[in-house]
Amino acid sequence: MPELPEVETVRRQLEREVVGRRIKSVEVRGTRTVRRQSPEELQRRLEGARITGVERRGKYLLVELDTGDLLVIHLRMSGQLVRAAAKDEVSKHTHVIITFTQGGQLHFVDPRTFGELFVVAADAIDEQAPELAQLGIDPVDEPMSWTTFARVLQAHPMKLKAFLTDQSLLAGIGNIYADEILFAAGLRYDRMTDSLSSQEIRRLYRAVVETLHEAIRYGGSTLADEQYVDLHGRPGQFQEHHHVYNREHQPCRRCRRNPVLKTKFQGRATYYCGVCQV
DNA sequence: CGATCTACCTGATGGC
DNA sequence: TGCCATCAGGTAGATC
Description:
The protein has 278 residues and is an alpha+beta fold. It has 2 domains: 4-133, Alpha-Beta Barrel (N-terminal domain of MutM-like DNA repair proteins); 146-272, Helicase, Ruva Protein, domain 3, CATH 1.10.8. The protein has helices at 4-17, 39-46, 125-128, 130-133, 146-155, 160-165, 175-185, 198-217; strands at 23-28, 51-57, 60-65, 69-74, 80-84, 94-100, 105-109, 116-121, 261-265, 268-272.
């Protein structure tokens, strides 16, 4: 589900909706969502804390607390953060309910239960959450020059889609946006990183930055299963602007003649135009 | 070291 | 209808 644009959409909404609020109580249901520490520890460290900010690194959300702790949230495939009222009915797959002292709740909903919440001390995050320390450059949060991009690209010979989705090199790009970025750059998913001309490197760099920002502008992508909705339960709109993802057999939006092709790469569906991408 | 697979889950969909 | 296989935005860990 959520990749950088969806997580960033939720981050911006959280910034408006929950910063300044104090956590009154935390209810953990089920055993999978809070698995790195006991639910009791998570509750103890959250209850009474005031939220001071919401940051994002790649696909991770970092909710900053006035206690010096961070609430780290990863939505994985099917996680959602949804605002709710105490009187609202709690859906079947709601695994964590955070209630604020001023009223209102935040629900963590996740049918597939791959998503995760945990609390760490902000100053111990690198030791206690090594997966965060390993993240590469976030192309939206940490704008980089195209020469920096080129250096990272050329230092790691691999196929372009593997490069784009490697969270330790660039943080935040997943299966949808890798395909959309490669289409925008006019490059095939299986081109090698070290085979690109400097013009192609610049095209890819521009495509990374522009595609992600454009997707954020449209509130991210929601597919037919509606696994991604924003804080207010609303779907994104960027799927209407996809050029290749989920468009197998439909005409390429650039050349308007050739059908979008679908193949499998690294076990994932991969969409591309066999003519416009070289 | 990289690549390839498998596991973690529920639910939707399509073929028979 | 039902049953079974396949697939879905992600990532970590095992194995080769």
